[in-house]
Queue: 2 jobs
Job 1
Amino acid sequence: MARVIFYGRLADRAGRERRAPVAGQGETLRHFLTRMAGDDAELAAMLSGQGINFAVNDSIAPPETVIGDADEIAVMPPFSGG
Amino acid sequence: MIELVERSIDPARLLTAFAERGAGAGAMVSFTGIVRGEGGTGVEALFLDHAPVLTAREIERAAAEARNRWRLVGSCIVHRVGRIAVGEAVVFAATAAAHRREAFEACDFLVDFLKTDAPFWKKEIRRSGEAWI
């Protein structure tokens, strides 16, 4: 099961953390998140929205990154600065 | 030195500690950012969300860039996370260098990064409710 952590306004909408299985070899981050959002079209739209950043195991990664079951994925709204 | 902390910070004490570490520098510049209470908006506090490892890593990347661009004797960034009340310090940044221009420019660069590009997510807490900004 990959661990997905949501930040900022996404955490309010999706919860801080979810776990979901990665679908076999070669699943991309984008595909995984679309599948995880399932029927929740509003969440799916938020996850693919403008300026959303992703990280895999604490390193920023593009949505085309292939992920595995042991990965920790961060889904982050645009950075606001401090 | 980079720290992300939930407790309140004391800029004067941080500056004193930084000055002790930066002995030999010809110039030190520090910046303290404070949560603004804008008249009539009803803002009581900010809440700063962060990704512990990634946020620290991105700040370290900016600090490394500053060290490459300016000849620094040292730098220090202490940033609050979590709930920060109006009037409290939210960030302390300091740089030390042989000459003032380098210290000023490097501190300005670090603060610009922290205020605009750093991986934080900011929520205003008002009497009337909360809103991500």
Note: Chain A touches chain B through 18 residues (CB under 8 Å).
Job 2
Amino acid sequence: MPQRIGQYTVATPSRPALLSYAAAVGNKEGDGPLGSCFDYIAEDTTMGRGSWEQAESMLQKTAVQIALKKIDLAARQIDLIFAGDLLNQCIGSTFGLRDFGIPLIGLFGACSTMALSLLNAALAVDAGAARYAVAVTSSHFCSAERQFRQPLDYGGQRPPTAQWTVTGAGACVVGHGEGIAVEALTPGRVVDLGIKDANNMGAAMAPAAADTILRFLKDTGTEPGDYDRIFTGDLGVIGSRLLCELLDKEGIDLRAVHRDCGVMIFDRERQDVHAGGSGCGCSASVLCAHILPEMAAGRLKNVLFCATGALMSPTSSQQGESIPGIAHLVHLRA
Amino acid sequence: MKPTKKEYDAMTNKASPPSPKGKNSVFAFLIGGAVCALGQALLEGYRAWGADLETAKTLVSVTFIGLTVLLTALHLYDKYAKIAGAGSLVPITGFANAMASPAIEFKTEGPVTGVGVKMFTVAGPVLVFGISASMVYGLILWVIGLFD
């Protein structure tokens, strides 16, 4: 049964394990530094479908299919699937998962959704509400651009602070058994330090990441040095710098163990992605294709995975609202 | 010790590299100027071909619009605009791209609710305020005319 430790953190004493995981990505991500790690790389970002939204759904479906196949589980053996994406009404998930027939709990946590879905899956398994639960999320550069920004072929310049939405999906099967275990989790709070620039998401999300990491460390009485790595979702280079500076003010130096999935997934110079990658699929695909395999190989043992999300919509931005951030944290141990 | 919004704004400004304004300005000047020079060359060409001045001007506009729409459809215009920046925006090409790009993007939502509705999402404000401004100036001109 889940157990509360400290004010904000929940331990999962039965150690729900990540039994299987898979990442499906687009060709740009496949061309990046982690290219050889992904389970599936789409040759063409349309995935052979008629729309970008369908392509994103296909990515999510593919990630779940591969993750299930790796441990020979059928969809009917999965009790719950926690899923979400960036699209209005989460259509990336609902259409991608409609053929599986698995009870779906739809989530929205913007780019933090991988940690959000994973912590929910771990809670459900730990509480005995599910024998097997799947956590999955996706994003697609083209479907995100048309919803949040401009048409793809519109000619414009992106500022150096802008980030590139990852085309990708990651899926984890959580259950009891051998594997990397979820030890504890800290759900995020909405944190807003007044950033309004939609082209500087890293800056908008960094305070949320700092808040969640700080609360986790306080609740568990640990410090960054106790972990092999602390991964954030998609802060990019600017957000990562701000996160470290914010934690400096608290007397915590994160630099030695901190890595950001948004910085890792692309070669920023060669692939022209400015401040780094972003999107739900960013932390999801890096988790499933790099972090978990590294843990399984024994190279990383004690890891914090803290995915970050910017909770704005085009409407709130147009109405002059600032961009609130959220960050959910999952403590993983191999 | 959480920073205030003002303090965090200062931290963010310090951490965020500015756009390369000098480089952008030079490219915008050179490429925007080159487009205008090309326009002038086209005008002279059409004139030499026997078109009168008014027709030649229209033909130049039509040529630029046609070229832009073609480049937009070939997914090349955004790459050009990334380098040219404001140089791609000022001439008639920017407007043509702003109309053509949503038309291509939203054809998945159908010819009416997609192309028809969304075609004006980028260029719509230009039309609204352009026409409004011309009405205001027309009114001013009419008032001045009353006292002539």
Note: Chain B touches chain A through 39 residues (CB under 8 Å).
